[in-house]
Amino acid sequence: MENTSYDIRQLNEKIHQASSFVDLLQMELGKAIVGQKYMVERLLIGLLAQGHVLLEGVPGLAKTLSIKSLSQSINAKFSRIQFTPDLLPADVVGTMIYNQQKNEFVVRRGPIFANFILADEINRAPAKVQSALLEAMQERQITIGDTTFKLEEPFLVLATQNPIEQEGTYTLPEAQVDRFMLKVVIGYPTKEEERLIIRQNLNPEGMTPIRPVVDPNDILAARKLVREVYMDEKIERYILDVVFATRNPEEYKLQKLKPLIAYGGSPRASINLALASKAYAFMKRRGYVIPEDVRNVCFDVMRHRIGLTYEAEAENVTSENILSEILNAVEVP
Amino acid sequence: MLMLWMVASPLTSAAQEHDYFEVKAVPDTTQIRIGEQFKLNLSARVQLRLIPGINFKIVFPEVPDSFAHFEMVERSEIDTTGSNNVEKIFRQTLTLTSFDSGRWALPPLKFEVFSTTDGSYDSVFTQPIEIDVNTVAVDTTKAFKPIKPVRTVGWLLMDYILYIIGGVILLVIIGLLIWFARQKKVPKYVAPEPKETPYEEAIRELKKMEAEKAWNNGDIKIYYTQLTDILRVYFEKQFRIPALEQTSGELLHNIKPITILNQQREKLQAILTLADLAKFAKLQPAPQEHEDCLQKAIDIVEWSKPKAVEEKEEDKTNPKA
Fold first, then answer.
1. How far apart are CA B92 and CA B301, in angstroms?
2. Residue in A288, A291, A327 closest to B281 by CB
3. Which chain B residues touch A4 with a CB distance below 8 Å?
4. Are B228 and B270 contacting, i.e. CB atoms less than 8 angstroms apart?
5. Given this model, what pLDDT does residue A166 score?
């Protein structure tokens, strides 16, 4: 059924009411996490749009704290997997163990059986382990022995990559990176924020505990509503223009980008850009997507989906530079 | 018999009676330096009146290329200029040189004359000539001098004249080709239409929308898209803001430094917000809102009208006497 203006108004009101938990959630997280508002916002986009998030940033930027706090505030199960070179797929997904008393094999579930997973330093583990995790992320189910287990929703993986220590790492292949909806690059907090972080950590009463403010079912309901957010044809065309400009920049008067791009965004990029825009609009308590929403999430959705050529690397051109050029050239509807 | 034939021969008898056949070998110099060339002029003169009715042939001496310390350099053709009905004169010039110093005698050279009429024959010898071939005087008391360098020949315009002419012709050809090519490309002059200023363009389009009541022409989304596009194009051309590539929020942020536009911020925000709702949220604004938006857009463009246009309009309304 095509949306009418009346439908949109109703939807808008519905979303306005349903999205009220977002502010509540952000307030609750703000008790434990100082600064990093951007990262928290992206985590919520991932949570609402059913997409996983790849985080890149130096250690000590409250990555673990953020996802742990998020799971506490949603009353969900959290688990952290530290990826190391000797990690095995069974250490992530679980394995079959022989029970001598019962004389049978029983399943021992791995740490992936949780709602929120922090896959720390994912690039330290060999390809086999990465594949096991990424497959679980995609299929949202795990097969151990003959039994397939569906992972409990909401299921969100937050993987981190450490950009400063690359020795002995197994860089994620492009096809694997593409499975993350967002790649967020986080930076240091400001001086004022860091002052508050010190105070908070040195508080004799300890950290303020995080209370569960949202039920996981609310998240699942919100996910459905996110997909209902109205996206006009003009916005769809805008998304396609942005993605196609990464593939054929010369068609958008960006010939100079042609030798810098090895490959552009995949159809998965278009899907995720649309979905993340809807999630962002939902968070802004709107029932429709506007171009601002697309532009706001564009860098995080697209930066890991553009392949750079050697020429670009030699000239220190980043995918962010390319995206900036594209966004400045593609006409906004 | 031979004696009888000789007595009967007209050449022999002429020789006995007169000196009808005279030969000479005259050098242009008798003193040369070693290796220097000199000319030896040979001539044979035959008095025709002394041998009437006889056809004859003169044979010049056969001088070899090298003989008696002399070397032949050049041998000219036999020349008969100066001959007439009275006498026949034959001339030849030999160019000779010698590479042996000393005084050397050029031997007598034998000239022969044959009668083609009766086959009689006569011969005459030239006088021997002495030629002094001198060496170059060397002052042994002085030191040896180095060999002189090769002398360069002076630059002469004529040496290069062909190249110069060729170059000039080439330049003329290239010039003509360029001229012909330009003649073809030069477009016909078309008087340019007076160009509209961004203000004039925006106002014209907004007034057109107003006159046509564009909001009644179908999809309201198209109306608001056109309205905002006119404003965005105006901002882009007039204030150099890349408004077409900016979202409403970015545009409102970027007009802040432009005071004249920032003064109309509220009106612009109202238009953009309503337009975004109409374009992206399927909102159907009330009919009055369409007109209000258009009027606000006209107000913004009028307010931010450049001074030059204002002055032009004032001149039109109050022409100076």
1. 110
2. A288
3. 282
4. no
5. 62
B210 residue type, one letter: E
Q: For the residues of B148-215, what is the DSSP string, one character each? A: PPPPPPPP-GGGGHHHHHHHHHHHHHHHHHHHHHHHHH-PPP-PPPPPPPHHHHHHHHHHHHHHHTGG
The Cα-based distances of A231 to A2, A19, A270 in angstroms read 12, 17, 13
* pLDDT tens-place string over residues B23-57: 999 999 999 999 999 999 999 998 888 887 778 88
Query: What top-level class would CATH report for the domain A20-218?
Result: alpha beta
- Residue B27 is predicted with a pLDDT of 95
- Determine contact: B254 vs chain A, CB below 8 A: no
* DSSP run (H or E) holding A240: helix A233-247
Establish if B273 touches chain A: CB-CB under 8 angstroms.
Answer: no
pLDDT value at residue A2: 46
User: How deeply is B165 buried, as exposed, middle or buried, from its count of CB atoms within 10 A (0-12, 13-18, 19+)?
Assistant: exposed
Residue A117 tokens, joined: 């997973």
List, as ranges, residues 218-247 from A with C-beta within 8 Å of B.
Answer: 230, 232, 234-235
Which chain B residues are Cβ-neighbours of A5 within 8 angstroms? 281-284
The tokens for A145 are 């022995």
CB count in 10 Å sphere of residue B43:
19
Contacts of A235 (CB under 8 A, 6+ apart): A277, A289, A290, A291, A294, A333, B280
Q: Among partner residues B242, B279, B281, which is closest to A333 by beta-carbon distance?
A: B279
* Cis ω before B192 (30° cut-off from 0): no
Provide the terminal-to-terminal Cα distance of chain B, rounded to the nearest Å.
142
Say whether A232 and B280 touch across the interface (CB within 8 A). yes
Cβ neighbours around B227 below 10 Å, total:
25
Is the pLDDT at B12 greater than 60, yes or no?
no
What would the pLDDT profile of B115-124 be if each residue is shown by its tens digit? 887 888 888 8
Residue B212 near chain A (CB below 8 Å)? no
Domain ranges of chain A: 20-218, 230-329
For residue A9, the chain B residues in CB contact (below 8 A) are 283
Q: Which residue has the higher pLDDT, B83 or B306?
A: B83
pLDDT at A4 over 60: no
The pLDDT assigned to A276 comes to: 94
Segments of chain B assigned E as strands = 21-27, 31-33, 37-47, 56-59, 66-67, 70-75, 87-97, 102-106, 110-115, 121-125, 129-134
Predicted-assembly ipTM surpassing the 0.85 threshold: no
Each residue of A225-279: pLDDT tens digit?
888 888 888 899 999 999 999 998 888 888 888 889 988 888 999 999 999 999 9
Compute the nearest-CA separation of B319 from chain A (Å): 44
A contacts of B280 (beta carbons < 8 Å): 230, 232, 234-235, 288-291, 333
CA triple B82-B86-B91, angle to 5 deg: 35
Query: Whole-model pTM?
Result: 0.64
**What's the longest Cα–Cα distance across chain B?**
159
Fold of A230-329: Helicase, Ruva Protein; domain 3 (1.10.8)
Q: What is the pLDDT of residues A18-33, one digit of tens each?
A: 788 888 888 888 877 8
Best of A235, A242, A254, A331 to disrupt the B interface (most B CBs within 10 Å) is A331
Domains and CATH numbers, chain B: 2-134 (2.60.40), 198-305 (no CATH)
